[in-house]
Write a structure and sequence with these properties.
Chain A: Its main location: membrane. The complex is a heterodimer. Chain A is mainly alpha-helical. Helix content of chain A is 77%, strand content 1%. Chain A has two domains: 219 residues, MetI-like (MetI-like fold); 267 residues, MetI-like (MetI-like fold), CATH 1.10.3720. In chain A, α2 packs parallel to α11 and α22 packs across α23. Chain B is an alpha+beta fold. In chain B, α5 packs parallel to α6. The longest helix of chain B has 18 residues. The chains are: A mainly alpha, B alpha+beta. At the A-B interface, α19 and α20 of A face β8 and α5 of B.
Chain lengths: 550, 390
């Protein structure tokens, strides 16, 4: 092994250690946690938190399956006026983070908010007491809200599968005499099972990750308890113990998803079949289809986004821009920008690891890089505390004695936040870069080697320029996800630093909703970027580099 | 491998004259290696030695115990069907893959094997890919310059332009590869591979993506450039005609093994096995009997030149070894079908004792009626043990 390769291997080992640090530290913290707290947690906190989290997961899982599969089938199997619009619009709720939708609805449904006021006016009632709607701040309310913003995770892969695979198979089913309903339940649904499992898995990860919506709606999930145990009770071992329970939950989820996907391959990877011949609908059926399909768009995006826009406008007219908004936006952009830069750079190296280090160790590194994404934000943050503190102590020992001053990377600094973001979202840039590399014919890097360039030089001179669009789109996706992120930001941000998301959280916690509307609107607008990107990818022309080398 | 050929005693040169069209060289023979051409471009062609190299992927052996030598300035063709291991061999020499056993030497330097695996970028080996592998994000000039990082920017540009001029594409220097025709892309790939002055050039089916007309011309041009530079080269191909035209020697491969490595003429005249006999031309195969130094076939008998144990043998004949003789002599045959093809007539002849009709060429007016008499001509008759394998 040459010195350069030895250095690369060492760097990879360090990186893997950093990526694994949160999990290891959680295990250690939980193991030597003070025994006195555990009985309390086990008796009073965990049972309820596990029950509520379990119910939430089951409810959200069922709702997103129904909504995602139903809408995917609607736009794939039928033709009706407005279908093409719906096809794209059904993705829009992806732009609304769970805490934002909860925030918007709490205000919308407030007894003095527009909906209840309007209803009262309609019914001729004068006092809020005379009209009692079921309270949104409940487990069913939380399930409903999360379901309506998370269903696109199921809609997207399922629709892609229907588009790619379904044409011939569904026609065959129909030729064999199966009606639309029978075709759906006997052919389409089993066919789509791997896609549905994938989507539900992602939606449930998001549910586990959510801290804002659950807390605003008064649901005491595990995530909320981790946060509360740490922040309110300052009990790190306790938080670590709950986090470890959650981690077990995540592992269970992943296993369940694999199981549900079954041995049948996810068949969406092949070439695109002839588009499905859609069954045309007309008259009231067409109207019903449009109405049915529009409901999730309206509830998951139209209503909250529209309300936020209106509320932000009201606020603007009344008192101008909230003065802190500019600073919060700047903070968001700065931290997300810095973390994106690190994420993309590290992601590039990880994606190239199979080439730089050899296939086996490279693939292992890529898998380890995906760990952070599977961990809910609170769990990751708790897991990072001890390693960061250790790092600070090490740096202080190293430099403090000599200089009387030590660089602080750890707790309460922007660096900690950037590290946490990077760990959490690394897999996005790794995945995008890998996809970009995969599209490059393998003879191109080989040719560069034959012309005298080493592995690393080849990476820079050939693969990076060719994969640049993919790397860039990965960077964009990572940036948006980081900008929207709440739990990690909440727990690890430096003192007195507010980003858009933490500001929103604070306003919601204080109950001063209208002040956060502008921030929420900005977050939703940021969230629209990847949706637009998805739509372009979906509709876009054949990638340019498919002719590469010919 | 057995190499026992039947020859008629006292005959002259038995190689058919003229040679089958595709066996004739269309280009000038190579200049003495390492002289003129080499001096001109400053290349010093290397000697390449491959010793007992094996490579397997999982359980599947791709290459088994292959040994080859390439003297400086020689062009060798590796001929075989897809999957015979010829591309694997090329990747091992290039350094893009490492052998499981055996070693590879360039001049006296071991580059692979026995614990050594020199990376491709330091081996001084050039490779032309089947898909050319031009970098789509770089101009033609930048592609050719890619391997010239050791030169100053100005010198690199000058050398690249010179190489491009050599393949007649100096005017396309600023184009992008996506705008080139297949033939142009191939020539750019050649210029790019030659620019860093590799000591051995490997060519992986470099003409297979061209249409027939272009292929002929580009092949001749490529060969001229290689000969001019006196470059050691290995061409991998599945096209026998291409191997014959391009190379000084042909290494015939089958299922990961080297079958025979020889000049085209030797391969044609003295194939080591029925497989080798089939590789460079049509053959007719039949059972025969060796007995007391004579060979008996359904087409007649002749004397065996090499000692052959008595018994059943496999006989391979070149079509030119079968003669049409006056009636009454030789073996009678029945004409099943005749086709007029201009200067000659093709006839399908059924002969007692043969599984399939023979396809022969006769003078247009030489044959009348349904009957014809056949005999064996001198040369082009190969005798192999009657094994079940080919």
């Amino acid at each position: 092994m040459t010195p350069a390769r030895g250095l690369l291997h060492a760097a990879a080992a360090v990186l893997a250690a950093i990526l694994l640090a949160p999990v290891v530290s959680l295990a250690v913290a939980a193991a030597d946690g003070t025994g006195e707290l555990w009985p309390h947690l086990a008796a009073y906190v965990l049972p309820q938190a596990i029950r509520e989290t379990g119910l939430l997961l089951v409810g959200v899982g069922l709702l997103v399956t129904a909504l995602g599969t139903g809408t995917a089938w609607l736009v794939s199997a039928f033709a009706f006026p407005g279908r093409r619009f719906l096809d794209a619009a059904l993705l829009l709720p992806l732009a609304v983070p769970t805490y934002v939708v909860a925030y918007a609805y709490l205000d919308l449904m407030h007894p003095l908010g527009p909906i209840q006021s309007g209803l009262r006016a309609l019914l001729g009632l004068s006092s809020p007491r005379d009209l009692s709607l079921p309270d949104l701040r409940s487990l069913p309310g939380c399930i409903l809200l999360l379901g309506f913003v998370l269903y696109p995770y199921v809609y997207l892969p399922t629709r892609a599968l229907f588009l790619m695979r379904a044409g011939t198979l569904l026609e065959a089913a129909r030729m064999l005499g199966a009606g639309p309903a029978r075709t759906f339940f006997r052919v389409a649904l089993p066919l789509a099972r791997p896609a549905i499992a994938l989507g539900v898995g992602l939606a449930l990860m998001e549910t586990l990750n959510d801290v804002g919506a659950a807390e605003f709606l008064g649901v005491r999930t595990l995530t909320v308890q981790v946060y509360a145990t740490w922040v309110n009770r300052s009990d790190l071992p306790g938080a670590a113990q709950i986090a470890l329970v959650m981690l077990a939950g995540v592992v269970g989820l992943v296993a369940l998803e694999r199981l549900a996907r079954g041995k049948r391959g996810y068949a969406g990877s092949g070439h695109r079949d002839r588009p499905t011949a859609r069954r045309p609908l007309s008259g009231w059926r067409a109207a019903a289809a449009l109405a049915l399909g529009s409901t999730p768009v309206l509830l998951g995006f139209g209503l909250p986004a529209g309300y936020l826009a209106w509320a932000a406008w009201q606020r603007l007219r009344a008192g101008g821009w909230p003065e802190a908004l500019a600073a919060q936006t700047l903070n968001t952009v700065l931290y997300a920008g810095a973390a994106t830069a690190v994420t993309v750079a590290v992601g590039l190296l990880v994606a190239a690891a199979p080439q730089l280090l050899g296939r086996r160790s490279g693939q292992a590194l890529i898998r380890v890089a995906g760990l952070g994404y599977a961990m809910p934000g609170t769990v990751l943050a708790v897991g990072l505390l001890a390693p960061l503190a250790l790092l600070d102590k090490g740096l202080a020992d190293l430099f403090g004695a000599e200089l009387g001053w030590a660089p602080a990377i750890g707790l309460g600094t922007g660096a900690a936040l950037v590290i946490a973001y990077t760990l959490r979202f690394l897999t996005i840039s790794v995945g995008a870069t890998e996809a970009g590399f995969a599209r490059i014919p393998s003879t191109l890097p080989d040719a560069a080697r034959m012309l005298g360039r080493g592995r690393f030089a080849t990476l820079l001179a050939v693969q990076l320029p060719l994969a640049w669009p993919a790397v860039l789109s990965g960077a964009l996706l990572a940036f948006v996800d980081i900008a929207k992120e709440l739990p990690v930001t909440l727990l690890l941000r430096p003192l007195n630093v507010e980003t858009l998301s933490t500001h929103l959280y604070g306003e919601a916690a204080r109950g001063t909703y209208e002040d956060g509307a502008a921030a929420a609107l900005l977050i939703v607008m940021t969230g629209l970027i990847p949706v637009a990107l998805l739509l372009r990818l979906d509709r876009g022309p054949v990638p340019r580099h498919s002719r590469a080398g010919a | 491998m057995t190499d026992r050929r039947a020859r008629l005693p006292g005959s002259g040169p038995f190689f058919p004259d003229p040679l089958p069209l595709f066996l004739r060289r269309r280009t000038a023979p190579p200049p003495p290696a390492g002289q003129d051409g080499a001096a001109k471009t400053g290349l010093s062609p290397a000697r390449l030695d491959i010793r007992g190299v094996s490579r397997r992927y999982g359980r599947t052996p791709a290459l088994e115990d292959v040994s080859l030598s390439l003297p400086p300035g020689e062009i060798l063709a590796v001929l075989g069907r897809s999957g015979c291991g010829k591309s694997t061999l090329l990747r091992l020499i290039a350094g893009l893959d490492a052998p499981d056993a055996g070693e590879i030497r360039i001049d006296d330097r071991r580059v692979a094997g026995r614990g050594r695996d020199e990376p491709p970028e330091t081996r001084g080996v050039g490779l032309m890919f089947q898909d050319y592998a031009l970098f789509p994000h770089l101009t033609v000039l930048a592609n050719v310059r890619f391997g010239l990082r050791h030169l100053s920017s100005r010198a690199a540009r000058a050398v690249a332009l010179e190489r491009l001029a050599e393949v007649g594409l100096a005017d396309r220097a600023d184009s992008y590869p996506g705008t080139l025709s297949g033939g142009e892309a191939q020539r750019v790939a050649l210029a790019r591979a030659l620019a860093p002055r590799p000591r051995v050039l490997l060519l992986d089916e470099p003409f297979s993506n061209l249409d027939a007309g272009t292929r002929e011309r580009v092949r001749a041009d490529t060969l001229a450039v290689l000969r001019q530079g006196g470059i050691s080269a290995i061409l991998v191909t599945h096209d026998a005609a291409e191997a014959v035209e391009f190379a000084d020697r042909i290494a015939l491969m089958r299922e990961g093994r080297l079958v025979q490595c020889d000049t085209a003429e030797r391969l044609y005249r003295a194939p080591a096995s029925p497989f080798a006999a089939r590789a460079l031309g049509d053959i007719v195969e039949m059972e025969g009997l060796a007995s007391g130094g004579r060979l008996t076939t359904p087409l007649g008998t002749l004397a065996l030149t090499d000692p052959t144990p008595d018994g059943s043998v496999r006989v391979c004949l070149r079509p030119e070894a079968i003669r049409i003789v006056p009636r009454g002599e030789g073996v009678p045959g029945r004409i099943l079908r005749r086709r007029f093809v201009g200067a000659s007539t093709r006839i399908d002849v059924e002969v007692a004792g043969l599984d399939a009709p023979l396809r022969l060429t006769a003078a247009p007016d030489g044959i009348a009626g349904d009957g014809v008499a056949l005999g064996l001509a001198e040369g082009g008759v190969f005798v192999f043990p009657a094994a079940k394998s080919s």
